[in-house]
Amino acid sequence: MFTSVPGARLYWKLEGRAEARPLVLLNSIGTDMDLWDPVLPLLRPRFRLLRIDTRGHGASTAEPGDFSMQLLARDVMAVAHDAGIERFALAGVSLGGMIGMELALARPAQVEKLALVCTSATMDAASWNDRIAKVRSLGMAAIADLAMGRFLSDELRAENPALYETVRRQLVTMDPQGYAGCGAAIRDMDLAERIAGIAAPTLVVTGTRDTSTPLEGHGDHLLARIPGSAHAALSAAHLAPLEAPEALAAALISFLEG
Predict the structure, then answer these.
(1) What are the pLDDT digits (tens) for 2-22?
(2) DSSP annotation of 24
(3) Can you tell me the distance from the alpha carbon of 138 to that of 130, in angstroms, rounded to the nearest whole number?
(4) pTM, whole model, 2 decimals?
């Protein structure tokens, strides 16, 4: 299905029993909804799943330009409205978690529970500015090695080279303008202090192999500031749904059904 919003056309999928609890799944920058594929068989029997390709990613198109976290949060609400979902839990990886935090602050009545997977409220703006400029001038291949070094661990690359190459191919063939636009949302986000206002029960999931948003300096910041937040640590690099699907599903189910 597609939802048209100003400046973008958003692709989404809704699956599962109509009476099941709604769960929105959001992807990281540089990936699409397929990021969640290994986890879906474990979540589908329990939840009504709404997956969304972030604007400029996957099958979602977007006009060039800098996006904001507020804009990306409004995209999610537009899709949820079209899907007939009023209240939902949300699990987001990296950028998806940042959008989730913005959404929990802006629309507390809609977000019942929040799972923040390998994400942060504090990223280095200068490094993201450099990455945005590089992508816009040289294309996705210019940052592919950097991104893949953070996305997946060396252990997974050795164990499953086909998966590694699939993720890399998806990254280098995506729209650089979409990546850059979402990169601007990360660069310019102002969540660091505001997250103390999140009212939804929150689970912070960190990866012990994650060099992009590890517990130290990222997950611990979320845990210290989001009231009552809980923590789960997985043996995974940045894309936890690909590296630790069973452990991630178990953590999500325990949190969401608890």
Answers:
(1) 999 999 999 999 999 889 999
(2) E
(3) 12
(4) 0.98
